[in-house]
Every structure is written in structure tokens, then in C-alpha cells.
Write a structure and sequence with these properties.
The chain is an alpha/beta fold and 270 residues long. The protein has 10 helices and 11 strands. 47% of the residues are buried. The structure holds S-adenosylmethionine.
């Protein structure tokens, strides 16, 4: 039997009056798990920053390449995916368990709509394990404690923080969260992250008005960060080649995808 757990709790009622990030992200990547308000706000954001759908797609493709690389080339068998998003075509456990059926994956998100769909995330290979934690990234203590029920935290874990630290508006608080989570996993563990940026070098200028619009019309509030700020999250870790780059360029076939204003990196804990 595959080990997996069903999220506890009673019926969940998603807020359909305000656009929510998980559902708008789902709209941008072509999913159907969203409401009219999400499509409306998502399309308005896309009119300010037309590349936003490319960003979302590039981020998902980066996730696929990073999980494949870590599972196949680095022998990683445990993943802690924080800020999971709604299930889509290739979720972390599906990619990892295709290569290593015994891979164990814990998902974390705090959006009620992701909780509603979490059952899809919990259907894994018989040899592996999946779990879903309904928790806030601002509470790393709970995340680590609950993750330890499924993952062996004495063995390497790939901590995935894709498109999530941008919802921790205070950079000091975001750094503290990363440090606390990486302190709970052993040497040989990885941090995989993506983060939006307004850096002009990667075409990020439209992020500024787009995020202003988002913060007035949707939830949760978001921030962009510079390459220097994102690099600070990786302090004390060793960057895997090619380092911090536009996530569309990370170990992608040369010239295959355009540069997007969303950084991506993978780093190992020495
Ligand atoms: C941009 S989506 C990224 C989804 C996925 N990681 C990916 O890269 O495709 C961000 C996700 O973070 C979740 N999220 C936002 N704020 C959060 C918080 N404070 N705690 C936990 N999850 C949060 C949202 O619900 C959403 O599912």
C-alpha cells in the first residue's frame, strides 16, 4: 500500500469573491481550477506584464527539470514542496516517483482550494509516500514537525520553495524561514527555489506595476526581489551549476525558452 494521508478537517469553502494566487497561477498555466474573479484579475495582470504566463510555465518546467535532476543525478529520495499550488500535469511526486518509486514527498500550502484538491497529490506509487500539510510558510516549526511524520529528517531532503518566498514580504523574516527549514535537514540536502524579480537584466520592470495592481486587487500580497536579495537565501549553501539564473535557463536546452523575470536556483547544504 502507498502510504498517504487525507487532509483532516471539515468542508472547505474557498473565497470566490477575491482572486487567490493558487487559482490565478492555475489559470496562467492553463488549468481549470479557478473562478471568474481569478481569470479576470489574472488577465488584467497579464495585460500589464504579458510575459506572466511564460513565467508560470517556465517555473513549472524548472520544477520538472530540478526534480528530475535531483532524483536521477543526485539520488534524492525525499522532497518537501512548500507552496505546492494546485495539482497540475506533472506534480513533484509524479516526476520523482517515475524515476524512483520509493520517493517520499510532503506538500505544504495554506490555500483552501489546494486543500480541496490535495487528494490528487496524495495518490502516489505503492512503494513511496505522499503527505499534505495545510500550513503557513510563516510557521516553519509546524512544517518541520509535521514533515518529520513522513520524511526521515536524518537523511537528505530537497526543500522546494518555488514562488513562495515572494509572499513573505519582510526579507528578514523570509531569510529566517529558509534558515530554520534548512537547519532541520542534514548535509546533502538541497534548496530549490524560484522567485520573481523586477531586475531589468531579465526584463523585470513590468513586475512593479503588475505587483502594485495585484496587491490592490488580489491575495496574498506579493513582492519582487533583486538577484542580490535572492542570493542571500542561498547563503551557506553551495550553488549547483549554472547558479542563480532566469528559471527558464536553468539546465534548459540552449535557446529553447526566453529569459523570464523569475530567478531559479538549486543549492546543496555542505
Ligand atoms: C505561485 S504559486 C507556486 C506553485 C508551485 N510551487 C509552482 O511553482 O508552480 C504559490 C503557492 O504558494 C501558496 N502560498 C502563498 N502564501 C502562502 C503561505 N503563507 N503559506 C503557505 N502557502 C502559501 C499559494 O497558495 C500558492 O499555491
Amino acid at each position: 500500500m502507498s502510504e498517504s494521508r487525507t487532509p483532516p478537517g471539515g468542508p472547505v469553502r474557498p473565497d470566490t469573491g477575491v482572486a487567490h494566487n493558487a487559482r490565478v497561477w492555475n489559470h496562467w498555466i492553463g488549468g481549470k481550477d479557478n473562478y471568474e474573479v481569478d481569470r479576470k484579475v489574472g488577465d488584467q495582470v497579464a495585460s500589464i506584464i504579458p510575459v506572466v504566463r511564460d513565467i508560470a510555465r517556465a517555473d513549472r518546467d524548472f520544477l520538472g527539470r530540478a526534480v528530475t535532476y535531483l532524483t536521477r543525478e543526485r539520488g534524492v529520495r525525499q522532497f518537501l514542496d512548500i507552496g505546492t499550488g494546485l495539482p497540475t500535469a506533472d506534480n513533484t511526486h509524479e516526476i520523482a516517483q517515475r524515476i524512483a518509486p520509493d520517493a517520499r514527498v510532503v506538500y505544504v500550502d495554506n490555500d483552501p482550494i489546494v486543500l480541496v484538491h490535495a487528494r490528487t497529490l496524495l495518490t502516489g506509487s505503492p512503494e513511496g509516500a505522499t503527505d499534505y500539510i495545510d500550513a503557513d510558510v510563516h510557521d516553519p516549526g509546524t512544517i518541520v514537525r509535521r514533515a518529520a511524520e513522513t520524511l526521515d529528517l536524518t537523511r537528505p531532503v530537497a526543500v522546494m520553495m518555488l514562488g513562495i518566498l515572494n509572499f513573505v514580504l519582510d526579507t528578514g523574516a523570509a531569510l529566517d524561514i529558509v534558515r530554520r527549514i534548512m537547519a532541520a535537514v542534514p548535509s546533502g540536502s538541497y534548496l530549490v527555489l524560484t522567485h520573481p524579480t523586477a531586475d531589468p537584466e531579465v526584463g523585470g520592470e513590468p513586475q512593479v506595476p503588475a505587483m502594485e495592481f495585484w496587491n490592490e486587487n488580489a491575495t496574498p500580497p506579493i513582492t519582487a526581489r533583486s538577484a542580490a536579495d535572492v542570493t542571500a537565501f542561498l547563503e551557506g549553501l553551495h550553488l549547483v551549476e549554472p547558479g542563480l539564473v532566469s528559471c527558464s535557463q536553468w539546465r534548459a536546452a540552449p535557446g529553447s525558452t526566453p529569459v523570464v523575470p523569475q530567478y531559479g536556483a538549486v543549492a546543496v547544504k555542505p
